[in-house]
What we know:
Blueprint: H1 3-25, H2 32-42, E1 48-49, E2 56-57, E3 61-63, E4 68-72, H3 80-90, E5 99-103, H4 109-116, E6 119-124, E7 132-133, E8 146-152, H5 161-171, E9 172-181, E10 192-193, H6 199-206, E11 213-214, H7 219-225, E12 228-234, H8 235-238, H9 241-247, E13 255-261
Helix pairs in contact: 1-2, 3-4, 5-7
Amino acid sequence: MSATGATSEKVSGRLRGTARAATNALGRRATRWERSAHRHFLAVGSRVECPVCGWHGVSFAASRKPRRMNRLCPECFSSERDRALQLWLDRHPVRPDARILEVAPLGLLRPASERLGYEYTSVDLHSSRAEIRGDLCGLPFATGSFDVIACFHVLEHVPADVEAAAQIARVLRDDGEAVVIVPWDKTNDDTDEDFEAGPEERLRRFGQADHVRMYGRDVADRFRSGGLHVTEVLWRDVFSADDFRRCALRGDDDRFWICTPAGR
């Protein structure tokens, strides 16, 4: 190898090492410098692109729980579910007075949905991020208020999930839809739930100490019991191979339950 080639290889190795260090910083409390370095080093190239904030680069950052490479946007911290929702919304027309409700907001959907023309509202019983403090089992909105409701990884926390589904059905407009994601175990026919289990038991059975259930293959039937018509939409059926690569859509979540009011 020539001296020039050896020097180039050393520089390239240092850059890769710095990029890895910046990537790993997101697995713990990163310093301001580390976050800045991550955004800049991973921005070299355009293999991936975040549809939520527009950042693009060679790779997304690694997540800590679960530990997975190429998962979190280093600019807005979107995961695959946030990017999939953005792609879904981008492909649906928005009428002039359209309203969208986010349950348990994370701060990503508001700017993205408002760019599309939605009037945004958020609700949560405890979170300071929510505009309105409210219970999913007693939503403080009039019947038929929203065109879209985004409810991601919420219902597994709610003991009365069928009652919550009924509230979602009530506040949706006749032609509205709720985009729902919940953790589920495809090997079980029936949902496993236990309201009396302690934190350790919940962690073992449901994957998280504040979950009250792990949904089974009956997940759609439970939502239907609340008055929703449910269509299971696999991402692989609606997003292209290029979407999966560019937006890094592979992960624990791989589908939406699209819920519309039944019987109206």
